[in-house]
Amino acid sequence: VDESVDLKKEIRRLCEEKDAVVLAHYYTMGEVQEVADFIGDSLALARKAAKTDAKIIVMCGVHFMAETCKLLSPEKKVLCPDLTAGCSLADSCKAEDLKAFKEQHPGYKVVSYVNTTAAVKALTDVVVTSGNAKKVVDSLPKDEKLIFGPDYNLGNYINSVTGRDMLLWNGGCHVHEKFSVEAIVKLKAEHPEAVVMAHLECKAPVLAVADVKGSTATMLDYAKEHKETKEYIIATEAGILHELQRCCPDVTFYPVPPEVSEGGVGCSCNECEYMKKNTLLKIYNTLRYELPEVTVDESIAKDAVKPIERMLELS
Ligand code: 13P
Ligand code: SF4
C-alpha cells in the first residue's frame, strides 16, 4: 500500500464496511491494541468471540486463539493476520502424543490449557485459561483422575492451590520459562516498594516470590483496584505494559528481563515474537482481501468445541 495510507483509519473503515470486529490480545503491539474493537486475555477473547454479532472476526493474537474463535462462532468468517503466528506452548503438545498418553492412562480425564491446537482440544474433557483454571479444576469431582497439559508450570501451580494431584504434561512457554528469581530480586532491590506480578506460566520459584499471580487480566484488575500502589515489577510478556500504562498513567511498571546472564545483565527479549507478527499492514490486508481465513476440520471441530463450551459454563 501507498505509504500515505492511514492504516488505522482504513482498518476502522473496512470494519464498518464489512461488519467486522478486530479482537486483540494484550501481548500484541500497542498500535494493534489501539486499533482493535476489543482487547483482552484468552478468556475474555473467547467469551467475546462466542457472542459477537459481527460477520467477520479478525483475531490478532496467535493461531490457537483464531481456532478457538472459529470453534465458538462457526458461522462467522474468522481471519488471522498471520497464519505463522504460532505458540511454543501449543507446539509442546502434539495431538498424537496426547492420544498415546491417554491410552497409557485409562480412566483419566484431560484438562487442557487453552494454548493448544483444536486437535488437542478434541481429545480434551475441559479447557481452562490461566484466568479460570483454579475455578474449573475445583469444580471437577474430587475423585476424578486428571491429566493436565501442556503447561507444566500452570498445572503445578493449580495442583498446589487445589490440593489435586493431576498428572502434568511437560510443556512450557519459551517467554515465561525464562523469567528468573534473580532478575526479580535485582529489580526489587532497586525498587523495594514495587509489587511483583507474575503470570502463572512462570516457574514455581518465580511464582513463589510474586505478590500477585494470575492471567494478564488478573494483573490489570489488580493495578486498577490498587490505586495506592505506584510501582510494579511485571513478569510476563512486555506487551501487557501498554494497557497497564494506559489504565494507570501515573504508575511505573518495570518489566522483568527474562534471563540474567553470567555478568548479571538481563537481555530485553521478554517478548513473544508470534504475537508481534500482527502488524497494522497485515490487519489492513486481511480485512481488505478477507484472507487468510482460519477453518477447523469438521471432524475435529465437533469434539473440540465441547470442552471449550464446558469451560465457559463452569467459569
Ligand atoms: P492470558 O490468558 O493470561 O492472556 O495468557 C495468554 C498467553 O498466551 C500467555 O502466554
Ligand atoms: Fe504462546 Fe508463550 Fe506466546 Fe503466550 S507468550 S502465545 S504461551 S509463546
TrEMBL record:
EC numbers, comma separated: 2.5.1.72
Q: What are the entry keywords?
A: 4Fe-4S, Cytoplasm, Iron, Iron-sulfur, Metal-binding, Pyridine nucleotide biosynthesis, Transferase
Q: If you read the UniProt record, what top EC class would you report for this enzyme, in one word?
A: transferase
GO cellular component terms, semicolon-separated: cytosol
Tell me yes or no: is Iron among this UniProt entry's keywords.
yes
Q: Pfam families, alphabetically? A: NadA (PF02445)
UniProt pathway annotation: Cofactor biosynthesis; NAD(+) biosynthesis; quinolinate from iminoaspartate: step 1/1
Cofactor(s) it depends on: [4Fe-4S] cluster
* Entry annotated with the keyword Membrane: no
Reactions catalysed according to its record: iminosuccinate + dihydroxyacetone phosphate = quinolinate + phosphate + 2 H2O + H(+)
- UniProt xrefs under InterPro entries: NadA, NadA_sf, Quinolinate_synth_type2
Textual note on the cofactor: Binds 1 [4Fe-4S] cluster per subunit.
Biological process (GO) annotations held by this record are: 'de novo' NAD+ biosynthetic process from L-aspartate
Q: Where along this sequence does the record place binding of iminosuccinate?
A: 25, 42, 113-115, 130, 216
Q: Which residues are involved in binding [4Fe-4S] cluster?
A: 87, 173, 272
Where does it live in the cell? Answer: Cytoplasm
Gene Ontology MF annotations: 4 iron, 4 sulfur cluster binding; metal ion binding; quinolinate synthetase A activity
**Its job:** Catalyzes the condensation of iminoaspartate with dihydroxyacetone phosphate to form quinolinate.
Q: Which NCBIfam families match?
A: nadA, PRK09375.1-2
Q: Which family does it belong to?
A: Belongs to the quinolinate synthase family. Type 2 subfamily.
Q: What is this protein called?
A: Quinolinate synthase
Organism, per UniProt? Leyella stercorea
